[in-house]
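The authors assume throughout that readers already know how a fold can be written as discrete tokens. What matters is that the chain and its backbone geometry are given together, residue for residue. A single example would do more here than another paragraph of explanation. For illustration, here is how one protein appears when written out as sequence plus structure tokens.
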Amino acid sequence: MPACITLPFKFRKNDPDVPKITRTKAASRTDRQTKNLTASRIFARLSHKVLHNYYMTMNGKLQNGFAMHSGAFVLKTHSPADVAHTLIDSGRQKEPFYVFDMDEAHRRIQHFKSQMPRVQIFYAMKANDSEYMLKLAITSGLGFDCASPGEIYNLRQLNVNAKSIIYAMPSKTAEQMIYARDSGVLHTTFDSSYELKKIKQYWPDARLLVRIRVEGKSVYNLGDKFGCGHDTEAIKLLDEAAALSLKVVGVAFHVGSGCSSIDSHENGLRYAKALFEHEARAGRQMKIVDIGGGFLSDKTDRIDQVANIINKALEEYFPDKSVQVIAEPGRYICDSSYTLYCSINNVRQVIKDKEVVNMIYLNDGLYGTLRYNESWHKVKRYRVSTDEESLEKAILWGPSCDSTDRIMENFTILLPQCTPSDWLVLPIQGAYSFGFATNFSCLPTPRTRIVISTELWYKLKESKVFKASDFVVNPDINEPLPTTIPKVITENITTDVKSPFLLA
């Protein structure tokens, strides 16, 4: 099904993917009406929460480009780059696509574990919640950081134990709390008095972590939105929670997405230690420290420096090994495992400030998966028909009709002269790309070619998480990905609507 969800969408009465308690309702609603109801219209008339959650899940899978994928290609001799270049050189792949290197994500998980052996990973699935990424995280023994009922639902669909989930969202609605509670999730965060009162009413048995604010130099500073002050304000909230007979089991903080301050985690652990001591003096005990995420994803692995600081801080502030330490890396695990190969739709030259600039029109843009990007300096051209040339200024445009769909507007882009036969290669694209994509103008998101080495495949294929059908053992690497272009409607359409505006 194309990513544009306003195309005809039908339920089968015995569709195993539709929650059992909603099958009859869904089928009866569509049977009484026309068979060509759109997905959006079907769900606009249905109020059942579970069915609505299913719609959100299915829409997410379509947006993420995983509908109609053919499984992970098991590579015996080829590299992920070989697969991409072969696909392009064959001339059969016309649309932009991603290559997801499962081995790279697996390496990142193992590296994180080796650098911080005391820290348990709770993968921040908001960074990339694709099916294979989640399955890889599950088979790697990770817990999960969720920020919405939809994320909890997706994990429970994959049989993730609810006790392996932390609902790390300090501000939740009553309905969201009830959903998490009824799903069996135990742990969540808070940073305000109002949140405590809601928890008391709707989720009184929750195990709470107070979210404190820790400043740092980050791509996105979460402290502007979440986290209470680490001293007076946090202590006041801890005492209020005790007065409400709520159970606070720990302290959580987040230094911000893409944090470049390597000492921020040390500050957070020092603040957490002070709050642990306050609770101990009050006769209360906490046992969890959540150091959040913010680990940079570039290939220099500067996480080694951060890990050294965190390990030393843990020895200083929390030498007692009975204190459980968790982290919520997302970007670090998934970002470098995805590379976007973006086809060039058109090129034209203009004069700007008495200088020739190449206007390059791509088939993905700000309304697609390129809204959030920190590695544009690494963009390069994959040459198809031209030799190496000098670099020229370029402006990159997305495929939409919106003139604000300009990529990396505030930077000077230098590229060799490009033609519509060339492709741009954008590495480190796995985090916050599909999740930020929109359905503006019914423009689709790129498909994904998933690849895995035989070595990793042998480790994963026997797990209960992956199925045999999840892998293609002898793949044809020339096989193009399914098109995102919708099916052409050629049959005659009868309608009572008569438009006076017909083009000659």
The mean pLDDT is 82. The chain has three domains: 1-63, 72-101+337-472, 103-335. The first helix runs from residue 20 to 32.
